[in-house]
Write a structure and sequence with these properties.
Strand content: 35-45%
CATH class of the largest domain: Mainly Beta
Shape: elongated
Number of strands: 18
CATH architecture of the largest domain: Sandwich
Length: 299
């Protein structure tokens, strides 16, 4: 009787094919086992998605409780789980995310220490921002990490859900909290060392150590479209929906919403400091005098 290859079952004559099929299944099982317990956790590199599979995993002992993330739908139960580990090379902030289109409803827990004696640090079931991800993915955001410390990431599923996915660890020196209507939390993974940061109504502007500007969040008024060639900024500021930069020669540059003249920079202005308000802008001249432009509704 002939059987289908999809079931890894063949006629008695195809012994080599059967052996190959068994080898593939064995490799798949070994890969799963490599993540199945804390002691066999695999290493994760920053900003490099690492695949995992909980379908063939087994539940580890001591499931994490909801105590550290009671409002985020952890609900681990006796979920099958896998383990990964991450060791930062520098102090900073790390975000642990299971964002992966086509994955499943994950839950994650974070630990430090050594296997068998781990300290439970944080957890998450559902993050608030699922744009570009599968529904109900998990994310531990902006956790402060120490160089040389090994962190263990345990991945399970909401009420025992299983599936395949990928874990990504994003390193950053910038933490964002509060409203996330327009992606204000989504600090770019490519953001370098930051020396200044400005927050607008729903956008953020960063001045990097190399003097390049990076902006994220709401851009409906072009407030994140910095003018080309702006590579010598010494200071930045942001208003409700406009952004400003102070160049090395004292020139003030403004872009974004200009409904109230907040980007109509006075001519011949040479400044040493700038600030952005809701619908107005302010600068301190090199002489020390203060000048403002834009909305003056309240004087």
């Amino acid at each position: 009787m002939t059987r289908t290859k999809n079931d890894c079952m063949f006629t008695g004559e195809l012994t080599l094919a059967l052996a190959a099929c068994v080898a593939v299944l064995s490799l798949f099982t070994l890969n799963a086992r490599a993540q199945d317990e804390c002691s066999s956790a695999i290493d994760v590199l920053p900003n490099a998605p690492t695949a995992f599979n909980t379908i063939v995993a087994t539940p580890s002992a001591n499931p994490p409780s909801d105590s550290l993330c009671s409002d985020y739908f952890l609900q681990w139960g006796n979920s099958k789980d896998v383990w990964l580990r991450y060791t930062p090379s520098t102090d900073g902030l790390a975000t642990f995310t299971t964002c992966s289109v086509g994955s499943y409803d994950t839950s994650i827990a974070l630990y430090s220490g050594v296997c068998g004696s781990l300290a439970y640090l944080a957890c998450n079931g559902d993050t608030y921002d699922s744009a570009g991800c599968q529904p109900y993915h998990s994310e531990i955001r902006d956790y402060e990490v120490d160089a040389g410390t090994t962190y263990y990431i345990r991945i399970g599923g909401f009420e025992g859900a299983t599936g395949i996915g990928a874990l990504t660890v994003r390193e950053s020196t910038v933490a964002v909290w509060g409203e996330n209507t327009d992606g204000e939390w989504r600090v770019p993974a490519t953001l370098g060392v930051v020396k200044q940061l400005a927050a607008g109504g729903r956008h953020l502007v960063a001045l990097q150590a190399n003097d390049a500007l990076v902006c994220w969040g709401d851009n409906t008024s072009g407030q994140c479209n910095a003018p080309a060639g702006l590579t010598d900024s010494t200071a930045i500021a942001a208003g409700d929906a406009h952004s400003l930069a102070l160049r090395a020669n004292g020139e003030v540059v403004c872009w974004g919403r200009n409904t109230n003249g907040q980007c109509n920079v006075p001519g011949a202005l040479s400044a040493k400091a700038i600030a952005g308000g809701g619908y107005h802008s302010i600068a301190v001249r090199t002489t020390g005098a203060v000048v403002g432009w834009g909305s003056n509704t309240y004087g």
